[in-house]
Design goal:
Structural class: alpha+beta
InterPro entries: Cas7_Csh2/Csh2, CRISPR-assoc_prot_Cas7/Csh2
Protein name: Type I-B CRISPR-associated protein Cas7/Csh2
Number of domains: 1
Number of strands: 17
Shape: globular
Pfam family, one: Cas_Cas7
Largest sheet: 9 strands, mixed
Distance between the termini: 31 Å
């Protein structure tokens, strides 16, 4: 019998200091930006890549979308035979096989594109030289000065039936979201730190909430254009608390993790946890 899961709403915040959170290959690998608003963007695909890399390299999970080269025909056979549901990445995010008649499994875990809550400046690019077997290459190194990024997402309990997503899979997802980015210590990604993770589990698989980012805001200890450190920002979750209280009768549990360096306006986090004291679960990593 397939395990029944409830819907969940996810809020994930992390910051990037002198890093490139998500390079745009169509624009000299510059950090992705919304130039009209001056905000930094990160695709949902980039976040899923962090999670998959953690599951594969740290937890030893076999993946359908993997860093290891594999025969595409073997992956097609897996999809056709149904063995693909033995792979946690598919149970979380689904799978598409664009070979022949494409098969498609919609994943129950989905994210919106992330965006920064602050306006972001890019550092002046530096010319870098890289060595390859064919010779040396010259390129540009673009980074953000400081970006405080926010992702929202959710788990669809109804869709989870088709991929057989389990409670233990969801717990592993929680862990991977919090722990994966710091372990991705590549040259362009070092300097990124998770600050807050919140997953509100609903009481059923029909209830959904709005994008939780709509209810949070940043305040600054310094002019916004001078923000360079986590100590320069204060997170205001006053509206988020009000919104969650409005929907308290629909929420089964608040699962959360936070970094102690993140400061909250008016003791906002403790107020939230006190409100949900009987239905909150701190994730300890």
């Amino acid at each position: 019998m397939t395990e029944e899961l409830n819907n969940s709403e996810i809020l994930f915040l992390y910051d990037a200091k002198k890093a490139n959170p998500n390079g745009d290959m169509d624009n000299e690998n510059k950090p992705r930006m919304d130039w009209d608003t001056g905000t930094n963007l990160v695709s949902d695909v980039r976040l899923k890549r962090y999670i998959r890399d953690y599951l594969e390299s740290v937890k030893g999970e076999e993946l359908f979308v993997t860093n290891r080269a594999e025969d595409a025909k073997d992956r097609v056979k897996q999809l056709d035979d149904g063995d693909v549901l033995d792979l946690i990445g598919v149970r979380l995010f689904g799978a598409v096989q664009a070979t022949g008649d494409a098969d498609h499994l919609t994943g129950p875990v989905q994210f919106n594109w992330g965006y920064s809550l602050n306006t972001v400046e890019l550092q002046e690019s530096k010319t870098i030289t890289s060595s390859f077997s064919s010779g040396k290459g010259v390129g540009k190194d673009y980074r953000v000065k400081y970006s405080f990024l926010a992702f929202s997402g959710g788990i669809n309990g109804l869709t989870a039936r088709s991929t057989k997503l389990s409670e233990s899979d969801v717990k592993l997802l929680d862990e991977a979201i919090v722990k994966s980015i710091p372990l991705n210590r590549t040259r362009s990604k070092i300097g990124q730190t998770p600050r807050l993770y919140l997953r509100a589990e609903m009481k059923d698989n029909e209830t959904v909430l709005n994008d939780l980012r709509e209810y949070i805001d940043l305040e600054y200890n310094t002019p916004e254009e001078n923000v360079r450190e986590i100590s320069d920002v204060i997170l205001d979750i006053t509206e988020l608390l009000d919104y969650l209280i409005e929907n308290e009768n629909k929420i089964k549990k608040i699962n959360y993790w936070y970094d102690s360096k993140l400061k909250f306006k008016d003791d906002g986090l403790n107020k939230l946890l006190n409100q949900f004291s009987g239905s909150s679960n701190e994730l300890e990593y």
